[in-house]
Amino acid sequence: MKMKNWVKKFIIGVCAVMLTACAVQGEGSAAPTATASDEPVSGGTYIVRGAGDPYSFNPDLKVDDWGVVTYQNIFNRLVKQTVSNEVVGDLAESWEFSDDGLTLTFHLHEGVKWHDGEPFSSEDVKWTFDKIRTEGYQSNSFKQLSEITCPDENTVVFHLSEPNSGIVATIGWLGTFIMPKHIYDTPDYDWSTNPANFQPVGTGPFKFVSYEKSVAIRMERNEDYFKGAPYIDELIVSIIPDESTAFQAWQNGEVDDILGKAPSSEIAALKQDPNYNVYQYVATGRVYLSFNLKEGPFADVRVRQAVDMALDRQEILDKAAKGIGSVPETYMTPVFDWAMSETARIPDMDREAAKKLIEEAGYTQDENGYYFTCTLDTFESGNFKDTATVIQAQLKEIGIEVKLNISEIANFQTKVLDNYNFDMAMNSGSQGPDANAIENRIGSNGSLNISKYANPEIDELLKQGIAVSDKAERGEVYKQIQEILKRDLPMVIVTDEIYSYPIKATIHNHPLSQEKSTTLGTNEFSEVWIEQ
């Protein structure tokens, strides 16, 4: 890639760190199962489990976990993030910054077409990012983007008001898929109501065919894909909300890929089975608790500190996750080891000290030994229910009675994220691909800031963190941020995530496999082929 000076050094450094920390490992009974042939086979249908219905097929409008797999196969981004957290080209074949870091130029692949046959150009990129930075859910990530120009149809230039050392990594994340200007730039609809939101047209490896609510999303091979047509004929997202049902469907051969959502208790056996390869990697994802900071018991930081001190995180891993994961020690993901504070550390468990903090906040125990009662909201995903149950029991030990509200993710988002109607909420998610991505969760305008935490000092430090390129200087900024997070505690970290993805040995070129983990997007099936 064409990168210059300070940004080149920064991006290379990040990729090196992330690749080391998040290396993909394939495991089977011994070595990964040998294939019958190294030659890819064309044809077949690949069925992926989807946990729920997407809000729409507008990939940049709002956070939508259930739409991500479809987005990554119908649309493209300028650059994309791999499972190894590397940033590689997608619609852009190269890019470079100006010497002052204020101009970022992308050189686009030529001959790219939209699925309806219309030519793709730099104007589509400009239109998309003009919408994202004003109306998209990632708008807060592009505050420094002041103007976008198109010198020609294959070149697009981002003009920045100040340097942003994390912007390329952010462009490769979510909420940045390029959309067709010729379909969306119309006076008849805004981008939230355009009919194309349910008849999506992209440039990606698969074309949209149909969507039946609560049943399936069907896509077919894009023969004109600019990187070469996929091997498989059809990609289907089969919507199966219940994870036990999905796992059984996968074992029965009704589903080819459950996107890593195998029960933790099954991983050890799958590793020993030669019919599967189990890929494991350390991720920037964390399970964490958010709080209602405006009213209720958790508006007092001492009560939040009590929760932080009450958790036995190893017990949570052992009982809820069957040991899959790691005990967190820091208030930012440790993947960015160059930014970790040695002083702002998660405290050791001390339940007597936790009780004293609650009493200092003005609470006294009732006849049942409880200081107060609260709710914990979460949703059906992975081992969330089991994790919430263990947390419920642990907080009982310090006199907090917790009532669990476990719902579907759409209801969770409406209740918690949209309506701010909760006491305590449990969520998870990637806190990458750059250290500054934590802004989404703790910045005053962060799209995933569930607690609605607002601290001008944090906001200013986040600005500083992307304005410099030297890793040591950046690290000092994020260490200051961690000191404030320890003091204010807008969220309590529960576990760090280690993802385990069992894949059938007959599936080749999976984006999680060692040979493709540095070149394909995380859920991109453009090169998957099925051994016959």
Could you characterize the architecture of this molecule?
This protein is α+β, with helices and mostly antiparallel strands and 532 residues long. The protein folds into two domains: 45-275 and 505-530, D-Maltodextrin-Binding Protein, domain 2; 281-499, Dipeptide-binding Protein, Domain 3 (Dipeptide-binding Protein, domain 3), CATH 3.10.105. Helices cover 28% and strands 22% of the residues. The strands form five sheets. Strands 1, 12, 13, 14, 15 and 16 form a six-stranded mixed beta sheet that branches. Strand 5 (92-97) and strand 6 form a beta hairpin. Helix 9 packs across helix 11 and helix 14 (456-467) runs antiparallel to helix 15 (471-488). The longest helix has 18 residues, at 471-488. It is globular and about 70 Å long. 48% of the residues are buried. Residues 1-23 form the signal peptide. This is ABC transporter substrate-binding protein. Residues 86-432 form the Solute-binding protein family domain. Belongs to the bacterial solute-binding protein 5 family. Pfam families: SBP_bac_5.
So how many helices? 15
What is the CATH third-level topology name of the largest domain? D-Maltodextrin-Binding Protein, domain 2
First-residue to last-residue Cα separation: 37 Å
Strand content: 15-25%
CATH architect. name of the largest domain: 3-Layer(aba) Sandwich
Provide the number of structural domains. 2
Q: Percent helix among the residues? A: 25-40%
Unreliable parts: 1-36
CATH H-level superfamily title of the largest domain: Periplasmic binding protein-like II
What is the arithmetic mean of pLDDT? 89
What is the overall silhouette? Answer: globular
Largest sheet: 6 strands, mixed
Oligomer: single chain
Q: What is the C-level CATH assignment of the largest domain?
A: Alpha Beta
